[in-house]
C-alpha cells in the first residue's frame, strides 16, 4: 500500500516555548516585591552614592537640549535663534552651557577667594625665603671659598719667601758675601724681610723673658757676706745692677718699605715673590725645580692654577 502522506520528521519538529508563567504575579510574588522595594527605600544611601546620583542627574540635565516648548527658547527663537546655534549677534558665542561648580562646604561665597589669596601670599613668602636662603648659602660658600683661597695663598707665600731666602743664602755663600742673617734688617730684601723680622722679634722676646727672670731673682732677699759690716747680715739686693736693659732699650725702628709691602693683598705679594724667584733663580715653586735657563722650558706657568 503506497503511503500517500509523508511521514512526520520528529527530528525537525519545532516545539513551542515553554510557558513563561502566569501573566499576573501571584500574591506571594507581589508581597516579595513590595518587601524588597520597602527595604530599598528604607536603606540610607551613603554620601558617595548621593553625590554620584546628583552628578549623574546634573550631567543628564546638561546633556539635554532646551526643548522648543520652553518659554525662554521661544523668546530666543523670536530673535532668530535656532537649536545648535551659537549665542550672540555675530554667532561667535559659546554653544555649550557653562559648567556648574558645586559648592560643597558651608563657607561664604568670598571665602574661597580669601583662601586662595592667603595661600598665594604664603607661597610667595616661602619662595622669597627660599630665594634668600639660597643667596645666603651662595654668599657663605663664596666667603668660605675665599677664605680657603687666602689660606692657601698664605701657605704658598711662606714657602716662596723661605725658598727665596734659602737660594739667596746659598748664592751668598758661594760668592762669599754676607747672608741674610748677617745683614742689618733694612738691608734684607723686602720680599722675605718679614721672616728675618719675626726671628728678631722671637729672639728679643726670649731675651726679655730671660732678663726679667734674672731681675726678679736678683731682687730676692739673701744673706750678706761674712765680711760685710751689716749687723743683721741680710742684704735686700738694692745695690745690684738690673739685667733688663733690653726692656729699657726696646725701640723698634719704623720700616716703611716693609709696611708698604705687607699692606698689599696676599695674592699680589705672592705674585711678586713668584716672579722674583723665576727672574733671579729660574725657580718655579709649584714645579719645585730650578731650571738651567731663563726660558724655563717645561714649566706651565707662574700660578698654581697653571699647574692643575
Automatic annotation (TrEMBL):
Record-level Gene Ontology MF annotations: nucleic acid binding
Residue ranges constituting the G-patch domain according to the UniProt record: 68-114
Biased composition (Acidic residues): 1-10
Entry's Gene Ontology cellular component terms: kinetochore
Renumbered residue ranges of the record's region Disordered: 1-70, 85-116, 148-184, 199-255
Residue spans of biased composition, Basic and acidic residues class: 17-27, 36-58, 88-116, 199-212
Name by which UniProt lists this protein: G-patch-domain-containing protein
Protein's organism: Decorospora gaudefroyi
Lineage: Eukaryota, Fungi, Dikarya, Ascomycota, Pezizomycotina
Amino acid at each position: 500500500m503506497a503511503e500517500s502522506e509523508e511521514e512526520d520528521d520528529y527530528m525537525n519538529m519545532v516545539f513551542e516555548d515553554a510557558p513563561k508563567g502566569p501573566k499576573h504575579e501571584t500574591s506571594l510574588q507581589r508581597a516579595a516585591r513590595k518587601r524588597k522595594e520597602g527595604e530599598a527605600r528604607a536603606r540610607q544611601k551613603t554620601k558617595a552614592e548621593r553625590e554620584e546620583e546628583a552628578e549623574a542627574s546634573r550631567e543628564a540635565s546638561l546633556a539635554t537640549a532646551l526643548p522648543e516648548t520652553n518659554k525662554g527658547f521661544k523668546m530666543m527663537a523670536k530673535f532668530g535663534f535656532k537649536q545648535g546655534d551659537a549665542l550672540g549677534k555675530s554667532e561667535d558665542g559659546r554653544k555649550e552651557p557653562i559648567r556648574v561648580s558645586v559648592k560643597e562646604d558651608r563657607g561664604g561665597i568670598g571665602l574661597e577667594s580669601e583662601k586662595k589669596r592667603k595661600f598665594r601670599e604664603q607661597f610667595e613668602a616661602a619662595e622669597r625665603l627660599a630665594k634668600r636662603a639660597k643667596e645666603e648659602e651662595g654668599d657663605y660658600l663664596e666667603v668660605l671659598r675665599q677664605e680657603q683661597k687666602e689660606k692657601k695663598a698664605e701657605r704658598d707665600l711662606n714657602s716662596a719667601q723661605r725658598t727665596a731666602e734659602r737660594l739667596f743664602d746659598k748664592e751668598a755663600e758661594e760668592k762669599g758675601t754676607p747672608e741674610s742673617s748677617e745683614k742689618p734688617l733694612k738691608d734684607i730684601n723686602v720680599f722675605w724681610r718679614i721672616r728675618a723680622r719675626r726671628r728678631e722679634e722671637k729672639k728679643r722676646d726670649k731675651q726679655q723673658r730671660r732678663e726679667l727672670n734674672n731681675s726678679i731673682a736678683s731682687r730676692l732677699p739673701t744673706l750678706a757676706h761674712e765680711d760685710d759690716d751689716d749687723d743683721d747680715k741680710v742684704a735686700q739686693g738694692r745695690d745690684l745692677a738690673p739685667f733688663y736693659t733690653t726692656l729699657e732699650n726696646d725701640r723698634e725702628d719704623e720700616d716703611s718699605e716693609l709696611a708698604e709691602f705687607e699692606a698689599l693683598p696676599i695674592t699680589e705679594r705672592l705674585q711678586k715673590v713668584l716672579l722674583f724667584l723665576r727672574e733671579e733663580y729660574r725657580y718655579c715653586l709649584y714645579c719645585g725645580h730650578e731650571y738651567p735657563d731663563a726660558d724655563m722650558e717645561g714649566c706651565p706657568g707662574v700660578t698654581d692654577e697653571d699647574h692643575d
